[in-house]
């Protein structure tokens, strides 16, 4: 697991058409059942599991980060989730994926937000992806791009 996928950690060789991930300083080999540090990744690309202090995460965390980067590219909104701190970051995520999906994810792992945090997150419906399309980005948004993006963000799919 790289645990710090973000634009600054990607190098692209356009001539050779190669993409490389760099800065492996936070990387760990994945071992099922092992608990990992949650103080990894850059805030705007952190998966919800890090924001709720779930230490039993896996490599799908990097897929979330990739989805954040991809959304920033196709919707021309960088960063896609712009939280002012970790709590606000989770609120921004809940406003896009919806609190039902976030709660389903939490329930799957017998996790619960404390009442103060639950009040902070609030209640939100899943935002239709079409709401992010504007005059600057329709040429970047295709059904395949949306399908890929959803697969990166779907917390139930990511954690099998």
TrEMBL record:
GO molecular function, one term: protein serine/threonine kinase activity
Signal peptide (UniProt feature, chain positions): none
Domain Protein kinase residue range list: 1-160
Database matches in InterPro entries: CK2_alpha (IPR045216), Kinase-like_dom_sf (IPR011009), Prot_kinase_dom (IPR000719)
A single BP term in Gene Ontology: regulation of cell cycle
Pfam families for the chain: Pkinase
Taxonomic superkingdom: Eukaryota
Keyword list, A-Z: ATP-binding, Nucleotide-binding
GO cellular component, one term: nucleus
Protein name (record): Protein kinase domain-containing protein
């Amino acid at each position: 697991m790289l645990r710090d996928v973000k634009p600054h950690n990607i190098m692209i060789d356009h001539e050779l058409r190669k993409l490389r991930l760099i800065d492996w300083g936070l990387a760990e080999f994945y071992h099922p059942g092992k608990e990992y540090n949650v103080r990894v990744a850059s805030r705007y690309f952190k998966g919800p599991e890090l924001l709720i202090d779930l230490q039993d995460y896996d490599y799908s965390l990097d897929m979330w980060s990739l989805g954040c980067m991809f959304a920033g590219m196709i919707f021309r909104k960088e960063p896609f989730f712009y939280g002012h701190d970790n709590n606000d970051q989770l609120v921004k995520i809940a406003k896009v994926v919806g609190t039902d999906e976030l709660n389903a994810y939490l329930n799957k792992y017998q996790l619960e937000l404390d009442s103060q945090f639950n009040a902070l997150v609030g209640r939100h419906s899943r935002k239709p992806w079409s709401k992010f399309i504007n005059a600057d980005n329709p040429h970047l948004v295709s059904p395949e791009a949306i399908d890929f993006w959803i697969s990166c963000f779907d917390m139930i799919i990511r954690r099998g």
